[in-house]
Amino acid sequence: MSSQNTILEMRSITKTFPGVKALQDVTLEVSRGEVHAICGENGAGKSTLMNVLSGVYPHGSYEGDVLFEGEPCEFRNIRDSEHRGIVIIHQELALSPYLSIAENIFLGNEQQTRGVIDWNATNSEAAKLLARVGLDESPDTKIVDIGVGKQQLVEIAKALSKRVKLLILDEPTAALNDEDSAHLLDLIRSLKGHGITSIIISHKLNEIAAIADRTTVIRDGQTIETLDMRGATPVSEEQIIRAMVGRSLDHRFPERTPNIGAEVFRVEDWTVHHPIDTTRVVVDHANLHVRRGEIIGLAGLMGAGRTELAMSIFGRTYGAHISGRLIKDGKEIQTHSVGQAIRHGIAYATEDRKKYGLNLLSDIKRNITASALGKVARWGVMDASGESRIAGKFRTDMNIKAPSVDVITGTLSGGNQQKVVLSKWVFTDPDVLILDEPTRGIDVGAKYEIYTIINALADSGKAVIFISSELPELLGICDRIYALSTGRITGELTRAEANQESLMHLMTMEKEAVR
Amino acid sequence: MSTSGTTTTAPTGSPSGSSTANMLKKSLGGSLRQYGIIGALIVIVLLFQVLTDGKLLLPNNVASLVQQNAYVMILAIGMVIVIVAGHIDLSVGSVVAFIGGVVALLMKDMGLPWFLAVLAGIALGALVGAWQGYWVAYVGIPAFIVTLAGMLIFRGLAVIIVGVTVAGFPEGFVKISNGSLPNALGFVANRDVVTLVLGAVTIAALVLSQIRTRRTLLKHGLRTEPLGAMVAKLVIFSALIGGLTWILSGSRGGSPIVLLIVGALIIAYSFVMGRTVFGRHVYAIGGNLHAAILSGVNTRKVNFMIFVNMGVLAGIAAIVTTSRAGAAVAAAGMNYELDAIAACFIGGTAVTGGIGRISGAIIGALIMGVLNMGLSIMAVDPAWQQAIKGLVLLLAVAFDLVNKRRVGGR
Question: Mind telling me which CDD domains this protein's record contains (chain A) (predicted)?
């Protein structure tokens, strides 16, 4: 390829950490003006590669060459790479919540004269940038007051203010709903029209198919192949997955023959108000039920009230003015505290395992037993060896990849952390297991394992309520799916009836149409 | 006596030394820092031993080192729990003065027997803790503010009730911090047999408990540390306890009573934090509050109990301090909160909570104590002493951070 068309070339990059070869002889070549996707399982080395590119790992700490616009680069830090027009936007956004949009855009790059901020320039320049990214907010709005989707746009505006030539987005849509995701992808396309090259790291294969011109797959620290997404024969998702995992995943979802028993849990007329703005109804007279051995799904767009419904059931950890009835095994139950909910056999694994699910400072065994300490204690005294034994059994059963149960959970990969969370809730011996986005941010191989675990739990007679934003996943796993829209359950479909279109129709149903 | 320090390091230097050390390193992993801080303590002891021409480890000095610093250790035990849960307690110094005053007046003005006054002091500590715990746990005011208020409130109350000084206590009370165990078993070669027996029992208990734990682990097929590492660990700790015992047995009175109190508290609270549901909940709250709530931990109750407990320990510290001084003083306990907090941080407690151990805080307290004692023997100006202690605190935490960065260096 001629160097005129190539904006970035990374040649034979090798990066070693004590004991681990994170990258081995990786080559990446990005053409000017393209959207280039990078795929790979968690831990494959995508982030390490981007950190080499952006100067997080300074020149000299790796082997190989980085050529940007034909010139060799020796970045010592992020400032150096930004100076050249390479900007990386990380998965965890780096915005200061109590500063305004304009202040954030120019953070570290203030519009100033001799140390005094020029507020007129700051706000007017920010407004121009916001118009470019299609964000309709005043520049002096505080970051806390806008959603994640808009925050993502602020990050891009910030990148534009640095005259970005190569924009790197690490899992940009992981925390976004479908609408915001679509908007973001449109924006990336329009930036491409303005000559800005993008590298996008993503797990979402449909997204990659929609936006990428080429895709480079990385596995175990090595470049596997670069696929041309705009070629004569379209690249299938299967093809990418095969390259990512190094084996063919004929079935993305494990087989299961449901063995469904009697009804175990029923929610009647469940209404929840917003905890701060108590006039707002977040869950509106919801009715649902689940039977033993059954997996039901809750489908809904962001803000539909899925998590709110689950958390309000689970010890009223969300919401105010909660009304309605919960019926377990034919009897009405109260779940005013988490402890009460657990005692009634309800478990809830949160969607954000790092923030709400695990004590990342603590080890695997202590996390697994955290919700049911009573089962490994007598008179308030822990049975240390019993605890290790139980945790060891979960490690084997759930295939948690760690040398021992004394490993700190903060060091585990996302998939293994999720297995610890699942172990923790299975250990409480629940009848009803609510799983909120259990496969978010987990690579394809580990997802399959999580599905297998969920199936096994259902087969052992537990009722599973599965919340997910990925429709194929709901369709692949659930026996029955409830669709939610703006706090209401708008429909219920069996596995046979449901498909992406019918679900999406119910999920976007307007309030008026439901009444 | 000055050689006792050097002999303790001998076992690691034995022929298989390097491999044993390696094994130790490997098996200890995360707790390596704990051992680093013990090393620091030993280095500081040896340093002052040299600087004071061998005076630091004279039996009577060691005994008074223990008596002088008992309050830091007692407060540090409570403080490490508070900090692990993500709080802080700035009020303990004032609480010590307040409770000390009340206990003194109960004996002096009300004529209460000293042991009843002691019990009343502990109960009052619990009450003070409940007061602060209520605001922190149930109202939700940050502990920094609640205990800052407490610092002012209880200092004020102490001045009101004590005036300047209340002195003249029953002998039994004064003995708590100044007396020693009666040497009921006589002397052998001028050494107190009771102390020697106590030391031997402690070492035996340590060895037995380690062997028992190991056996249980092996029985269930769980991972154990290599035998060599365990033996090396036991030898080092036994040598340390043995050395201390040997020195103390030659002191004027033998074992200080307050050492027994502190020792009992250390063992009890190590158990509470390491082996009980309550201790586990404290670590869970400090490690990730949201996760703890969603795991069904009654975080309010646990937070409340943490402060009640801190109050109880502040009560005990008040008794020990008042007994040691032989008088209740309105200005007593000044800066005690800072001593206790410093001991925790030197001992590896994480500023953000979730990590910290009783043993670490105790070693931190001992480092501060040895500094106090050594500098005093050398007749260093108190102002300089303070500056030096501040520097040690800073360096200890800096050392910790640098270490972590190197280990986790990704």
Answer: ABC_Carb_Monos_I (cd03216), ABC_Carb_Monos_II (cd03215)
Q: Is residue A17 a contact partner of residue B410, using CB atoms and an 8 Å limit?
A: yes
In a domain, residue A264? The reply is yes
* Closest alpha carbon within chain B to A385: B217
Count of alpha carbons within 13 Å of A467, Cβ hemisphere only? 23
pLDDT tens string A262-294: 999 999 999 999 888 788 888 999 999 999 999
**B290 at A interface, C-beta within 8 A:** yes
Residue A1 lies in a domain: no
Q: Which residues of B touch A390 (CB under 8 A)?
A: none
- Clarify whether residues A472 and A421 are in a common domain: no
Q: How far is CA B105 from CA A319, B113, B299, B328, in A?
A: 52, 11, 37, 9
Q: b/e map of B253-269 (b: 16 or more CB within 10 Å)?
A: bbbbbbbebbbebbeeb
Structure tokens at B290: 């949201």
Number of compact structural domains in chain A: 3
Rounded average pLDDT over B389-396: 87
Query: Domain segments of chain B: what residues?
Result: 1-30+181-255, 58-179+257-407
Shared-domain flag, residues A421 and A485? no
Residue B300: closest CA among B161, B184, B179, B130: B130
> ipTM for the complex?
0.76
Q: Chain B: nearest CA to A337, how far in angstroms?
A: 8
- Residue A306 maps to a domain: yes
Q: How far apart are CA A63 and CA A44, in angstroms?
A: 18
Contact: B291, A359; criterion CB under 8 Å:
yes
Which residue, A395, A429, A463, sits at the end of a domain? Answer: A429
pLDDT value for B187: 80
Question: What CA–CA distance (Å, rounded) separates A504 from B260?
Answer: 71
Tell me if A199 sits within 8 A of A50, measured CB to CB.
yes
Q: Which of A311, A373, A387, A427 to mutate to test the interface with B (most CBs of B within 10 A)?
A: A373
A512 and A365 within one domain: no
Chain B environment of A359 (Cβ under 8 Å)? 283-284, 287-288, 291-292, 354
Residues 6+ apart with CB under 8 A from A469: A177, A178, A301, A302, A437, A440
Q: Which helix (H) or strand (E) holds A415?
A: helix A414-427
* DSSP of B387-408: HHHHHHHHHHHHHHHHHHHHHT
Per-residue model confidence (pLDDT) at position B406: 60
Q: Which domain holds residue A409?
A: 354-429
For tokens 């509470």, the residue is B272
Instruction: Give CA–CA dist B389/B369, Å, rounded.
Output: 10
Q: Which run of H or E residues covers position B218?
A: helix B193-219
Token pair 């172990």 in the structure block, residue: A423
Q: At the topology level of CATH, where does B58-179+257-407 sit?
A: ABC transporter involved in vitamin B12 uptake, BtuC (1.10.3470)
Range scoring the smallest mean pLDDT among A190-199, B13-22, B132-141:
B13-22
Interface mutation target, options B32, B212, B285, B288, chain A, most CBs of A under 10 Å: B288
Using CB atoms, pick whichever of A17, A362, A374 lies closest to residue B410.
A17
Instruction: Give the end of a domain, one of A245, A279, A305.
Output: A245
- The Cα of A240 is separated from the nearest Cα of chain B by a number of Å equal to 29
Chain A nearest C-alpha distance from B276 (Å): 4
What pLDDT, in 10s, does the model give residues A98-126?
A: 889 999 999 888 888 888 888 888 999 99
CA angle B137, B138, B139 (to 5 degrees): 105
Task: Kindly give the interhelix angle for B358-377 and B336-346, rounded to the nearest 10 degrees.
Answer: 120
Q: Does residue A435 lie in a domain region?
A: yes
Residue spans of alpha helices (H) in A344-383: 364-369
Categorize the per-residue pLDDT at B12 as very low, low, confident or very high, splitting at 50, 70 and 90.
very low
